[in-house]
Amino acid sequence: MNSREYLDTILAKEIQNMKTVLITGAAGLLGANFSKYLLDEGYNVVGIDDLSGGFKSSIDDRVDFYEVDLKDYDDVDRVFKTTSPDYVYHFAAYAAEGLSPYIRRYNYMNNVVCSANVVNACVNFGVEKIIFTSSMAVYGEGNPPYTEEQPQIPEDPYGIAKYAVEMDLKLAKEHFGLDYAIVRPHNVVGTYQNIWDRYRNVIGIWIRQSMRNEPLTIFGDGTQIRAFSDIKFYMEPFKRLMIEYPGETFNIGADKDWTINEAANLVVKVAREFGYEPNIIHLEKRKEVHTAYSDHTKAKELLDFYDDTNLEDTIREMFTWAEAQPVHDVKYIDYEIEKNLYTFWKK
Ligand SMILES: NC(=O)c1ccc[n+]([C@@H]2O[C@H](COP(=O)([O-])OP(=O)(O)OC[C@H]3O[C@@H](n4cnc5c(N)ncnc54)[C@H](O)[C@@H]3O)[C@@H](O)[C@H]2O)c1
């Protein structure tokens, strides 16, 4: 029996035992997609989400869902006590990197304090392993393509929050034996992505703007470089982390990169197929890393990760999905600091 067959056997046994997997952020892009995947694979799935950044309609009916804010640690403990999860995928966060300097408290509460509440519950209720989604943001400007070993020098509060939780997980393992794995994704796209938040998810923002006959907005000259990957290629590698590679960190995402101008033009092309005629406008430049993409050799070698994203097809799928969704208000946030706020974010 080779190692892959051995793993499949272990996973099959896990399913027979109806292992329970708790997913935080179950209404979000990663949480909604991974919940469905695990349910189809035969796992029990418990979901937690406060619906601050995701939608209840995205959650599969088979999920044992708890509408809980992770800041409310008594409620978090209650869910863990009631459902006794074997594994936890901690996806919940507010991932608005460029906005994070203006919402420091909100950022650290949702991305650090909430994570501490989840880690506490994992230790206190005997969870076997926690899988945490960090971010490429931990590398800061760095030296792309980022390898996992590169120094982590985050340049914004969002990246700092992710890095803090990474370090906290290492300590929790040393102190309490809590197993963990860390994934650092970047620029994930797909259905169930929140396209109604004006501060994050650039492809989603452009799809919403197209559908509302608004111009597609680009910060600065659009020469920034990003690599977009479809969420569907993450499912199997995510599942494998339940059992394999405790204490390891993996970059995950697409190798093919795009300038922001190229990606916007692709959205325009697909939008026209759906009967929209958006223009593109350039706004003032914002503080952001210009060129950001990662090396995925480790995930390919150890997790059989294979990204086969066809961005045009993914955008098409997202338009089809978005057109079937109810109208949502665009999310505006209360800023904690307005000094140096970009004009396009002023209310
Ligand atoms: N999507 C990406 O491109 C990307 C890239 C790098 C890292 N990540 C990380 O992956 C994870 C999932 O990302 P996503 O794209 O699915 O995000 P998402 O915003 O679609 O989903 C996050 C979910 O967490 C929930 N949530 C937020 N704060 C909460 C709280 N206090 N209590 C309970 N629920 C709360 C939101 O309501 C939302 O449904 C995040 O941790 C994010 O930082 C995502």
Count of discrete alpha- or pi-helical segments spanning 4 or more residues? 10
Relative strand content: 5-15%
Encode the helix/strand succession as letters. HEHEEHEHEHEEHEEEHEEHEHH
Q: Briefly note the structural class of the backbone.
A: alpha/beta
What Rg, in angstroms, do the CA atoms define? 20 Å
**Average predicted local confidence, pLDDT:** 95
Shape: globular
CA distance, first residue to last residue: 61 Å
Q: Which hetero compounds are present in the coordinates?
A: nicotinamide-adenine-dinucleotide
Q: The biggest beta sheet, please?
A: 7 strands, parallel
Please give the order of strands in the largest beta sheet: 3-2-1-4-5-6-11
Uncertain runs:
none
Number of strands: 13
Helix proportion: 25-40%
Brief summary:
By secondary structure, the protein is an alpha/beta fold. Helix content is 37%, strand content 15%.
Polypeptide structure, described:
Helices cover 37% and strands 15% of the residues. The chain is of the alpha/beta class and 347 residues long. The strands form 4 sheets. The chain has a 7-stranded parallel β-sheet with strand order 3-2-1-4-5-6-11, sandwiched between helices. Strands 7-10 form a two-stranded parallel ribbon. A two-stranded parallel ribbon has the order 8-13. Helix 4 (104-124) runs parallel beside helix 5 (157-176), helix 6 (202-211) crosses helix 10 and helix 8 (260-273) packs across helix 10 (311-323). The protein is globular. The mean pLDDT is 95. Nicotinamide-adenine-dinucleotide is lined by residues 25, 27-31, 48-54, 69-71, 91-95, 110, 114, 133, 135, 185-188, 194.
